[in-house]
Amino acid sequence: MDLKEKLTASFLAFENDVDTDTFIHNIRNEAIKIFEEKGFPTKKEEAWKYTSLNSVLKDDYSVFPKQENTIEYNDVKKYFIHDIDTYKVVFIDGKYSSHLSQTTHDGIDVCLMSSALTKPKYRIIVENYFNKAATKDSLTSLNTAFSCEGVYIHIPKNKLVQKPIQILYFSTGNEAATMLQPRNLIVVDENSHVQIIERHQSLTSNAVLTNSVTEIFTNKRAIVDYYKIQNDNQNATLIDNTFIKQRQESVASVHTFAFGGKLVRNNLNFYQTGERIESNLKGITIIGDKQHVDHNTLVHHIEPNCESHQDYKGIFGENSTGVFNGKIVVEKEAQKTNAFQANNNILISDKATINTKPQLEIFADDVKCSHGCTIGQLDESAMFYMRSRGIPEKEAKALLMYAFSNNVLSSVKIPEIKLRITKIIAHKLGVNIGFDL
After folding, report:
1. 264 and 237 in contact (C-beta within 8 Å)?
2. Which pTM was predicted?
3. Which domain holds residue 256?
4. According to DSSP H, which parts of 253-351 are helical?
5. Residues forming a β-bridge with 265
6. pLDDT (tens digit, 9 = 90+) per residue, 279-332?
7. 264 Cβ neighbours under 8 A, 6+ residues apart
8. What is the annotated signal peptide range for this record (predicted)?
């Protein structure tokens, strides 16, 4: 039995076990039919032209982990941003860990998706927002069909959340291979501001496949800063589907730091449904060995007088493969749009590969839109200049690559995250440089 058959056969038992109302049951049943029809994506699809899941799908994944595991904070402390006080929502093998978490209902809701899907007090928000931004592609539909646990965040209007929210998913390797499908719903009401940090981390070398879906709604004049730290081990696969629907005068920013994992696919989709909206998509990718990272972005400009800024940097070594497929759509009504997209890449190995495909679809005539990509190697004259001043070759290369990434790092608004990412980059480049960017 292949993984598709295993999942479809498991669905009925899953539905019988979970306690949700008819509204959610209907959504799940429709979603599993879509997945049954479409199956897992293949390279025959344009959006997956450069990324194959064949090697990932060969493992015999446990769809529902058979036993719960516990871990101690000291064993995983290094994966938290522990320099600052934060709310924390932690999951171990897909199950909520109360002793590692710090949730709240004090003026805001930072809690569990399972609670939101089952308790009447959340019903209005769930019915108005759940599955309203997510598309009906095969992997998102698969997640929707098995949606049960994840993070539910609701920030009422006029709230400045005083501390960031950390979302952490740990896989302990209890099974030889595990599949996880977290579902997150984040609703930020008018004039509110929140910062969120997300991380998926495997604690063993056992295979793990995570198919995650996050829906984010930024209402009028809301601000959301979202940080994804992806630095998993070589047997972990992450397919991250994030959908952000913005309303008038809102600002949403997503920083994606992709440093680890066997295969990482980031599907990041912004929908601008109001005027004077700002969308920011930033990313740094540094990979080597046989790692594969694929960024697939969409910014859909629907209303006039809006902006979007995309800036992705990639450094690829050894036999690694990078993919960037960025799409900007400007509808006819979206006049005065200002959209910028850049993808810059450095190959530090003759065996590394990058496939980049920036796209613009513009149906308006009064816009300012630009896109571009570069693929190259380190500047030889800059290297010579630094070597001539006594800087060793390894450190000179690292300094140039730091400078290459710096404009993305400079937009990070949480200093502790900037410091953490700087240290990870130094470790990836194998140097110890005594300054912070």
Report:
1. yes
2. 0.94
3. 3-429
4. none
5. 239, 294
6. 999 999 999 999 999 999 999 999 999 999 999 999 999 999 999 999 999 999
7. 230, 232, 237, 238, 240, 258, 291, 292, 293, 294
8. none
